[in-house]
Design goal:
The complex is a heterotetramer. Chain C is of the alpha+beta class. Chain C is built from twelve helices and 20 strands. In chain C, strand 4 and strand 5 form a beta hairpin. By secondary structure, chain D is α/β, with parallel strands linked by helices. Chain D folds into two domains: 180 residues, Thiamin diphosphate (ThDP)-binding fold, Pyr/PP domains (Rossmann fold), CATH 3.40.50.970; 125 residues, 3-Layer(aba) Sandwich (Rossmann fold), CATH 3.40.50.920. Chain D has a seven-stranded mixed beta sheet, with helices on both faces.
């Protein structure tokens, strides 16, 4: 994807996987989440985030906000000749929203360059996917709107990358939207401080052992080590690099202070 | 689409950075050093990283 | 200097308030606008805000009831002031500085003499916000108006009507179109006629015909204050509230027995020493145009009257004086005069009262004020009242006046002698 | 000066602004076929990309408009009947007004939402509302409420040029009303009231179609009660000074608001005047609003909506 391609992230990790990969610096989001004026939204939002240079025009806490917004991004990229593509990601829970259907309809109807990516971790808070979706694959929705739909292994980052790359090319060629469903997992509780429960039962240690067998980071690490793409030393260097970045991000966030209340008037209306 | 070595390392770095930052936010919320809620991505990073790395 | 926080006077009728609960504690730093405490009055609970910042020194704790304007807390500028405040043995409320002791009574008399009719008892005055603002602006008393608004409320036109009926004494802000005399704007013109003229002539004439000499003295009122307090307790049975003017009329009438020569007048070529002791009491009365006029009704044969009789007679005369119902008979036959300007004072003031012709003696009494005095070699705080006298040296000698003055002091300091 | 109809004035505003700025476009249901005359001829003149007929997906196309506005375009979303805005409440009341604020002012959302508002045509509850209070209760979106062709054109041009979300109510009863509209380009600034009729006894604040009713009553009471009619033209931003200036003269205020009375704009204005203009008042402030009912159809509507009789009664009650 290019810098100016649009992305609307899924809610888990508040979009960190998508935004870090798209080049957005996470330290500003840490500062924002700490209420500091140095935060990406000036410290007035607790959890919103924005970086227009990287095609990221913000996210919202209302699940399903991304569908209509992505239609808007698609309309813009269809008109302004920059051939931007929109990657719009959402979880299996969010796919329940009515706005999905209205947006899939408009996108397909107007052949908008949107790649809908459903990250199906099979859990909507405590509700297993079989209790909130009638069929096995959410990707089947695609056929109703005349767009290609595909299921991929969401724990295999390469498989996802390849599928999305194909869909992006399709969209950029003006052939309209596609839907990719990634079967993935949620290793921890829905929200820090809540029990990690499925329906009525809390997940047990054994459940975690089973889950961790398909840890995407470990799977990919072993694969790259086996292929010789990655060496132990390279791995440690990367980890060390990241540790430094984490400390710098924390220092940046902690150094900031809350904004001056006068910003509320600056931000409410544009001149 | 054949991934070149450099692209694979990019995917790997993004995966590990995501995991590290996601755990940082989780840890800080537990310590009361983060406002609001935190919905961890742990275990589900690959779709986002895969979709937005290239 | 610490900032005083007082018991606010919230409603007209509020005389005291109870401290419900302090929201802060001794020594807390308070910022302007912060809510300090909640008080309870007859009608309402009310939160009192700090109108300044500083360190809180609580004077009146929770649960206590104190009169309005009573100091309930202080805001010290800094910790040292706070410490000094806290260490001071808080003197009984209101007696530490040289405050005007007991003048409430004197003031009260002034009240009765001058206060305009208090608003009619009964319900609140219902007026629109606009009417209230204009009434205040024009100086119109809305409590006497009838409302013609949709809900019976007093409205703008009611105030405007009341305003035009009364001569407009609103200060003209724009160019002054009124009268200007030798460059000075005239506020009001009062003809030197009628009662005003009579008083003016009398004063001038008095100085012209008599040899007036004035002496300034004072009386220690400690005993008389105690006496009066006792009499006030008996107000029901006595049927009247005795004032200091009444007591001084009584005292003067008794003192004159010892110095009858003062009770005299020069008539033509003769000095008439009067048998009757008729005390004229000077009363300031509000005229129709708002000006103050001097009326001097007479208490006849005060020396034969008891204190209560004098008091009742004085009340009657003053009331009728205020209502303009004094007859000429009420005003005639005075042999000596007493004038009391104490009620208008908040400090010592001696003066040279002008004789009330053809009388030869006039006594002027002032405010009763705490003053330091040497008593048996020791400095004591004593309630002192100014006592000025003017006499007509044509008819009266200085020595008898001095003896009269000493007798008045002696009787004042030992009221018991009055009944001995 | 020429006289044109209210909806034609809106149509002219679209043409002028779409000529002036090619990022301006119209989106809504049945705009090309022109369900309403104000979108007539636009498709033929400006082509497919600037007059879009959408599926019946208000949430989607209102949300899309927010994103489109953030990324370089200036959409005008025609909801047809403003009553349908509830199907896109999240997008219209939360997302559009709050996106800029919640993202630190880093992006603007120049979008105009519009729709037919107001009753009086026996169309019942879902085609007769004028939900001004709900819009006013969502800080971050402005609200224009024109009562004449001249105001309709001037306010629509300003709305399109404004870099913030604007809600624009046009009243069904005013569609065919004619009025003077100059040929040359003009705009009307938001937040500037217009005294539609001078008077000295009672101030009547009214907006949209209610201005016409207020003027009718004022004319009827001429010679008996001198009524001043103040038309705020926009409710956010609101020209409170103009109201206070008028009340300072008359000392009496009647507010006519076709929205439901409870928590209405009229109630908000009354509170503001009592706070800021307390000592100007000789009489209680009267509100003439729609009763606290759904707007009925059939012949029952007149019992709920404001009427000239109710306005006259309110004026008389304070002009005692």
């Amino acid at each position: 994807m290019n810098d100016d391609d649009f992305v609307f992230p899924a809610v888990r990790g508040h979009g960190l996987p998508h935004l870090i990969s798209k080049g957005v610096d996470p330290k500003y989001y840490l500062a924002e989440h700490c209420g500091k004026s140095t935060g990406s939204c000036g410290g007035v939002s607790t959890y919103h985030n924005i970086d227009t240079e990287h095609g990221f025009f913000g996210l919202a806490g209302t699940l399903g906000t991304g569908f209509p917004i992505s239609v808007g991004y698609g309309m813009t990229s269809k008109w302004n000749g920059k051939q931007q593509v929109v990657v719009s990601c959402f979880g299996d829970g969010t796919s329940n929203r009515g706005t999905l259907h209205e947006s899939f309809l408009m996108a397909a109807n107007w052949k908008l360059p949107i790649v809908w990516v459903c990250e199906n971790n099979q859990l909507s808070m405590y509700v297993p996917v079989k209790d909130h979706h009638p069929v096995e694959n959410i990707a089947d929705l695609a056929f109703g709107y005349g767009m290609p739909g595909e299921v991929v292994d969401g724990q295999d980052v390469v498989a996802v990358a390849k599928a999305v790359d194909k869909a992006v090319a399709r969209a950029r060629a003006g052939e309209g939207p596609s839907l990719i469903e990634c079967k993935t997992e949620r290793f921890v509780t829905h929200s820090i401080g809540l029990p990690d429960r499925i329906d009525l039962e809390d997940r047990t240690k054994d459940d975690y052992v089973e889950l961790k067998k398909r840890d995407p980071v470990v799977l990919f690490q072993e694969k790259l080590l086996k292929e010789g793409v990655l060496t132990q030393k390279e791995m440690e260097r990367i980890d060390q690099e990241i540790a430094v970045e984490i400390d710098a991000a924390e220092a940046f966030a902690d150094a900031g202070s809350p904004p001056d209340p006068s910003v509320l008037d600056d931000y409410l209306y544009a001149k | 689409m054949r991934l070149k070595k450099e692209q694979k390392l990019t995917l790997y770095r993004n995966l590990v950075r995501t995991r590290a930052f996601d755990q940082l936010f989780s840890r800080r919320l537990g310590l009361g050093k983060l406002l609001g809620f935190w919905h961890p991505a742990e275990g589900g990073e690959a779709p986002g990283v895969g979709a937005c790395s290239f | 200097m610490a900032l005083e926080i007082i018991m606010p006077k919230l409603a007209m009728a509020m005389s005291q308030g109870t401290i419900l609960s302090w929201f802060l504690s001794q020594g807390d730093y308070v910022t302007k606008g912060q809510i300090l405490l909640e008080i309870e009055t007859e009608k309402v609970n009310y939160e009192v805000e700090a109108d300044g910042s500083g360190y809180l020194h609580i004077v009146v704790p929770n649960g206590e009831t104190v009169p309005v304007e009573h100091v309930i807390a202080m805001l010290a500028e800094n910790e040292e002031d706070l410490a000094s405040l806290a260490s001071q043995i808080t003197a009984p409320a209101g007696s530490s500085s040289a405050t005007v002791l007991e003048t409430e009574e004197v003031v009260e008399e002034k009240d009765s003499a001058l206060q305009p009719l208090t608003p009619p008892k009964g319900g609140r005055v219902i007026a629109s916000p606009l009417a209230r603002r204009l009434a205040q602006q024009y100086g119109v008393d809305i409590s006497s108006l009838a409302g013609t608004g949709s809900r019976g409320q007093i409205v703008k036109r009611d105030v405007e009507k009341a305003r035009t009926a009364k001569p407009a004494n609103v200060l003209a802000v724009a160019a002054f179109d009124g009268e200007v005399v030798n460059g000075i704007r005239v506020a009001q013109t009062i003809p030197l006629a009628g009662i005003r003229k009579a008083i003016a002539d009398h004063m001038q004439q008095s100085l012209a015909v008599s040899a007036q000499v004035s002496n300034m003295g004072e009386v220690d009122m400690t005993e008389l204050i105690r006496l009066r307090k006792a009499l006030l307790k008996q107000e029901e049975s006595l049927g009247v509230r005795v004032t200091y003017t009444d007591i001084m009329v009584y005292l003067m009438s008794r003192a004159l027995r010892y110095e009858p020569s003062l009770n005299a007048s020069v008539i033509g070529e003769e000095i008439k020493v009067w048998k009757d002791v008729n005390v004229s009491v000077a009363v300031a009365v509000q005229g129709s145009g708002g000006e103050l006029n001097l009326m001097v009704p007479v208490i006849r044969n005060a020396d034969q009257m008891s204190l209560v009789e004098i008091s009742k007679c004085a009340r009657d005369l003053i009331l009728r004086g205020r209502e303009g119902k004094l007859t000429t008979a009420d005003m005639e036959g005075g042999t000596v005069t007493l004038t009391n300007v104490g009620g208008f004072l908040n400090g010592p003031l001696t003066g040279t009262p002008i004789l009330n012709q053809p009388q030869s003696l006039i006594v002027g009494i002032g405010a009763i004020l705490d003053q330091p005095r040497v008593i048996n070699g020791e400095i004591m705080v004593r309630p002192i009242m100014d006592f000025s006298m003017t006499y007509d040296h044509r008819a009266v000698e200085g020595v008898p006046v001095a003896r009269f003055y000493s007798k008045v002091r002696e009787l004042a300091e030992n009221p018991g002698l009055l009944i001995a | 000066m020429r006289e044109i109809q209210y909806h034609k004035a809106i149509n002219e505003a679209f043409i002028e602004e779409m000529e002036r700025d090619e990022t301006v476009y119209l989106m809504g249901e049945s705009l090309r076929g022109a369900n309403y005359p104000h979108s007539e001829g636009l498709a033929k003149r400006f082509g497919d990309q600037r007059v879009l007929d959408t599926p019946i997906c208000e949430a989607a196309f209102c949300g899309a408009a927010v994103a489109s506005a953030m990324t370089g375009y200036r959409p005008i979303v025609d909801l047809m009947f403003i009553d349908f805005m509830y199907t896109a409440a999240d997008e219209i009341l939360l997302k559009a007004p709050q996106w800029r604020f919640m993202h630190g002012g880093k992006v603007n959302v120049p979008v105009v939402f519009m729709g037919a508002a107001g009753g009086g045509m026996k169309l019942a509850n879902e085609h007769s509302q004028i939900p001004s209070s709900i819009i006013l209760h969502s800080p971050g979106i402005k609200l224009a409420v024109p009562s004449t062709p001249y105001d309709a054109k001037g306010l629509m041009k300003t709305a399109i040029r404004d870099n913030n979300p604007v809600m624009y109510f046009w009243h069904k009863q005013l569609m065919a009303v004619t009025g003077e509209v100059p040929e040359e380009d003009y705009t009307i600034p938001f937040g500037v009231a217009d005294v539609k009729r001078e008077g000295t006894d009672v101030t009547v604040v009214a907006y949209s179609y209610m201005v016409q009713l207020a003027l009718e009553v004022a004319k009827k009471l001429e010679g008996e009660i001198s009524v001043e009619v103040v038309d705020p033209r926009t409710l956010e931003p609101f020209d409170l000074d103009a109201v206070l200036k008028s009340v300072e003269k008359t000392n009496r205020l009647v507010i006519v608001d076709e929205d439901t009375e409870r928590c209405s704009f009229a109630s908000e204005l009354a509170a503001q005047v009592v706070d800021k203009g307390f000592t100007l008042l000789d009489e209680p402030i009267k509100r003439v609003c729609a009763g606290n009912y759904p707007i009925p159809g059939g012949y029952m509507e007149q019992h709920v909506l404001p009427s000239v009789e109710k306005i006259e009664a309110a004026i008389r009650s304070v002009a005692v």
